[in-house]
Amino acid sequence: MVWDYNDRTPTLRPPAAARLRFTPPKILGSYNIPHAIWGDDASICHEVPTHVWNVMQILVPKTHLERAATCLVNCLSVFSRQTTFPPNKEIAGLSRCYLDDCIVLASSKPLRTTADYIILIPDEIFHFDVTNPASVQAPPKSFGLPDEFDKVGVPSFSSLLNALLYCSENFSSSDEKTTSDVRRRIYVQLVTLVAWRWREPWEELYNSPEEYPIKLREIRDCLSPESVPIFDRIHTKPQH
Question: How far apart are CA 154 and CA 36, in angstroms?
């Protein structure tokens, strides 16, 4: 299943059938399991036009992984646990990064209303705390979802950007190439997230943060202290 938003004009609104994609996280919310959708699903909630493939990533505290998997399998009968790399390039690349820590659920048949694969990932892998109420919010009202979908956990803009910034330099795995690939993926996501929040032309690099336009400074001001230096390294010229 793919959502393709070629219309770059906000506000994004998924088609009615595609909104059912949020059913898995809605189930977790109904069982009071802390969680947050991740990857492209999270970006779309912040008005980033992108493709949503047939893989849904959901962050869950490590202590809640087993319960989350059980709830989803019980409520979505077509899903079962996957113990080997599935024949899907996208999910195989993701799960190879943290296969020992995450749980992969696979549908027994192709679905049109939600992802065919669900990866439950410990939130600590991406330096994110889904139990922090300030870090998680409901889906955008512009999506037109029924009230029951308010239980879906979406990373707030600042918490998502903080996590992506940190992981763009600090994500690690046992395999050097995998680490590099994931950091590159994260970097692309964070740069796109900032660009779509900004929505203005900008210099490729600035001499210092003092030269940032107002909107870029506003984004910088919402970051945690540990994220600000990383943000500045991305947007300023190297200091010799």
Answer: 5
